Amino acid sequence: MTYAQDISRCLEETIGSGGIGRDALDAALEKTGPVLDGLRARHEDGTLPLLRLPGRSDDLETCRQAVETLLRGARDVVVFGTGGSSLGGQALVQLAGWRTPGPAALPGAEERYLHFFDNLDGPSLQAALKRFDLKTTRFIVISKSGNTPETLVQTLAALEALKAAGLEWNLAQHLLAVTEPGDGERNALRRLMTYHDVPVLEHDPKIGGRYSVLSAVGVLPALVAGLDVEALRMGAADVLAPILEGHPPGNVAPAVGAAVNLALAEERDVNAVVMMPYADRLRLFSSWFVQLWAESLGKNGGGSLPVAAAGPVDQHSILQLFLDGPADKLFNIVSWPSAGEGPRVPAELRNDSLVGYLAGRAVGDLTDCQQRATAETLARRGRPVRVIALERLDERSLGALLMHFMLETIIMGGLMGVDPFDQPAVEESKVLTREYLAMM
């Protein structure tokens, strides 16, 4: 396994009354058994295609060929999509250095830039379309249903900009779409792309947006960023294997995680879950987790509030509240072996009264100590802390991390008695939006 999960600081025997007893944990773990049986059955009959993705490779070559074609002559690559059609891709490409401090161009690429337009803002889109050299700009458009209004209006605006730039004759070189199969009678994006002879990759309608990171939705941006997508899926397969092999719940890391969440909610009224990785390249993983957890489990008056945090920067902002505020949160510290990484402070400063303690240390040494210190300090305050320690920070470990939390979320939904794949309350807002547009 590419990571180790340590729940010892969630237990009463370690942190006192803020933790759960072994009996409560065992009882919660036992409840996961039928859910795991259900996952094995759905893998067997193919009714949950997410579980088949880690073992697939046939679709990756299709994605690779589409990206190679799209990138010919490209300088800027724009991804249109919102929610699950964007957050997973962003979490993946950050592993390659996207939106981390430093140069903006993708590593290894000759002046190639990647942009995600996941929020709808008229002035921002207008300014960007004017700023881009559209001859060297490519657009990846992602909408599972093909009817997401934010994505449609962005795509229509881009099409008009390309036409105004005299590029209508070559739209197939500038755009690539991902949407569900079917005809254009119910899928506006597919109809639009078919009309303009733009290539479309099929998205399985049984893979929901927030669970789509390992599909073409995430694979396309990952390939643009030069990531090893086969390794991503291998990491996911590592996590799924114990479930498919019928291991007991105590040996299935996502089941253990779900059991801890359930027991803390029921026994200690924990109603918030903090995701706090200690790496720039995992900050958007936290944002991906927030949508996954909130949209899957926040139903029927239940659910816990997910909070995206980052270490060590948030030690200087919200850690005070975490340590001394309400004791109603489970903390997830995602660590990695950062010791020895990065620039090193000159050893000759060891006698300096102010910075001598840093002499000879690498930047990663400080981060390593901070991630361990934060977990221990929270535990000493009686706050439940789970530590997920990555063996390394690469594609395989990130694939494992993503699959762990997708499975943990699905299992948690089963324990709570809610459907982790729908979002019925959100649909009301979408209906009202269309009604308000009709009245303008």
From TrEMBL:
Q: Which GO terms describe its cellular component?
A: cytosol
Q: Does the keyword Isomerase apply?
A: yes
- Pathway, according to UniProt? Carbohydrate degradation; glycolysis; D-glyceraldehyde 3-phosphate and glycerone phosphate from D-glucose: step 2/4
- Keywords on this record? Gluconeogenesis, Glycolysis, Isomerase
Provide the GO MF annotations for this entry: carbohydrate derivative binding; glucose-6-phosphate isomerase activity; monosaccharide binding
Q: Which reaction does it catalyse?
A: alpha-D-glucose 6-phosphate = beta-D-fructose 6-phosphate
- Known EC number: 5.3.1.9
Q: Which residues form the SIS domain?
A: 66-242
Q: Which GO terms describe its biological process?
A: gluconeogenesis; glucose 6-phosphate metabolic process; glycolytic process
Q: Which of the seven top EC classes does this enzyme belong to?
A: isomerase
- Family, as annotated: Belongs to the GPI family.
State the name under which the record lists this protein: Glucose-6-phosphate isomerase
Which organism was this protein described from?
Answer: Kaustia mangrovi
